[in-house]
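Hi all, long-time lurker, first post. I run a small reading group and we've been trying to get comfortable going from sequence to structure in the token notation. Rather than ask abstract questions, I figured I'd post a concrete chain and ask someone more experienced to write out its structure so we can walk through it together at our next meeting. Sequence below, copied exactly:
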Amino acid sequence: MGVIVNIEDQRLAAKRRLPKIFFDYIDGGAFSEITAGRNRSDFKHWELTQHVLRTTENPTLGCHFLGADHALPFMLGPVGFLGLYRGQGEIKVAEAAKAKGIPLCLSTFSISSIGTLHDKVGGDLHFQLYMDRDKSFVEELLQAALDAEVEVLYLTVDTSVTSVREKDVRNGFRAVTKLNAPLLFSMMQRPAWCLDMLRTGSPNVEALAKYPEFGSGALEQASNLSRRLDPSLTWDDVKWLRKKWKKRLVVKGILSADDAKKAQDCGADAIVISNHGGRQLDYASSTITQLPEIRQAVGSDFCVMIDGGFRRGSEIVIALGLGASGVLLGRAYAYGLSAGGQDGVEKTISILTDEIAICLKLMGLNSIQELQKNGAECVKRITWN
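-- Answer (accepted) --
Happy to help. Here is the structure in token form:
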């Protein structure tokens, strides 16, 4: 493996190591992948303002979001099936997040459970919830989160119908429930991954261990769990969850100012501006494009997180300057995990940390707080004739 300099290097290393079915699951988007592409390309519509000879110290990168102070202005967002990319993947990611002093939000679609991460790792653990048709099952997931001392719950609201991700269809992800000859052959082309899986054991979704109706093995469980997502999810369900969950509640999957206001009205403590990484509505807006309008709609004090396409520290700086309270990473750290395990995730965090610090220094800024306070002077929209 060559020298890892940036997140794209991590992506290419992950592609070399992972079986195609799993790399494509991380990397792919819905239908024509236009939205996924916009998440990446639309950062170019903004520019950073350079100022020289203004600072004497390295900038401080601490940031306040989701009711707490954090070492960095970003965190690790929910990514499904981390344990399929590396053995004990969720544990390795949790260890990396703890070492770097940032939160990790665990997906419902995870191999290791939130309870296991709490017992074996600890740290600042959050939990992401998909609304199942069976509310009693949802309540059991909530109780597991409470038992794991989770303080922040994220309800994902943009998956009441699962979009078509054509790469997954071709590979049989969520359609193939057992190993077959083509899938086994594909996996055997990645011997390092195979040895890792053999060493750590056959992956199962640990949170579903006592529910035989979900089947056995991660592939079958993933297929059955996704079929049970509630297609009738409405704002009334958000209100129901608000009553059930007494701690901090975040609504994830907001892409319009109107929906952001509704989330506020339903009692959410925060939102995540998200289009599910371009994996749901094709031809939707990028998240960064919607950020300024959403920030204006909800006011300056409401917590507005954002994800979608972040691969550079400069892009995180743009988001913070446009009004984001903090940024959730997704694919960026999944590539790092796939390429290098815990060290790979820590490398992802370090790369972005260094890039943010360099940006702030060259912009003449002493801190993240200064960037957020003076955002309109620091980040400007480019207008082309």
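A couple of things your group might point at:
Residues 16 and 110 are 23 Å apart (CA to CA).
Residues 7-381 form a domain with the TIM Barrel fold (CATH 3.20.20.70).
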